[in-house]
Design goal:
Elements (H helix, E strand, L loop, with lengths): L2 H5 L3 H17 L3 H11 L6 H24 L3 H20 L6 H21 L14 H21 L4 H13 L3 H26 L4 H25 L1 H24 L1
């Protein structure tokens, strides 16, 4: 049996994971592609979320490292946001049995259209960094609150976390979309790793498949982050609009089925 025969079943899945990594590194929402792709491949549904977390964590590590290196935040600022994000994600995961997912989905139906309309209407959104207009204390409070509460949502349900973080940091903190996306990638990685550790402990990960697809995801994240760093908000903003619209359509479809 030659190499092509061995790898052929993986090629369509690897392409979709690469594409998901490319999109996710710019605007989030990679799970909209990877989760259906893994199911179509035939992965046991019980291993779906854990395997996806493994491959996506590998890819997000590449994007987060590249963004943070290029956008240069203070280390103590990042540390505080990481701690808040980890705490929020943990509490969200703990609360998952107390809050019906249907309530979160209805909230998303309400929240996502304004986000999409805002991104479409504000052509200059995220082009300039106005974060210096806030004091250091105010910027930390705003960034910390976003990190905690959106990571709490990520632990509770998850879809669109990177999109909400990027738009939130740009709108409420004044960071341009490039720096906002950098923070979103880092905090998304924190949440993903925490969830992955849980899935690994429970034995709910196809490690071989996750590692193989993680390489495709890393390549996609690298390509996407390079494009975002080169083009900035000009490519990030329309991608955010597309992802938020696709997420809204998926949630509405799931609720109507």
């Amino acid at each position: 049996m030659d190499f092509f025969q061995v790898t052929q079943p993986y090629l369509p899945l690897a392409f979709l994971v690469f594409l998901a990594g490319f999109v996710d590194s710019i605007a989030g929402g990679g799970g909209l592609i990877t989760l259906p792709a893994y199911l179509a491949y035939g992965l046991n549904p019980a291993l779906l979320l854990g395997t996806n977390k493994l491959s996506s964590s590998m890819g997000t590590t590449v994007a987060a490292a590249k963004f943070i290196k290029e956008t240069r935040f203070e280390a103590d600022f990042l540390f505080i946001l990481i701690v808040l994000a980890a705490g929020g994600s943990f509490l969200g995961a703990k609360a998952i049995s107390a809050v019906p997912p249907e309530i979160i989905r209805y909230l998303l139906i309400i929240m996502l259209p304004p986000v999409a309309i805002f991104l479409a209407a504000r052509k200059s959104f995220g082009l300039a960094d106005t974060s210096k207009s806030h004091s250091e204390a105010s910027l930390l409070k705003r960034s910390g609150a976003l990190s905690f509460f959106i990571s709490c949502y990520d632990g509770l349900l998850g879809p669109g976390t990177g999109t909400f973080l990027a738009v939130g940091f740009a709108r409420l903190c004044g960071f341009d979309l490039l720096r906002s996306t950098a923070l979103a990638k880092l905090l998304n990685l924190v949440s993903n790793v925490a969830a992955l550790a849980t899935f690994l402990y429970l034995g709910l990960v196809d490690i071989k498949l996750g590692l193989a697809m993680g390489l495709a995801g890393m390549a996609g994240n690298y390509a996407g982050s390079r494009l975002a760093l080169k083009k900035g908000a000009w490519v990030i903003r329309p991608m955010l609009f597309s992802v938020s619209t696709a997420l809204l359509a998926k949630i509405a479809w799931d609720m109507l089925r």
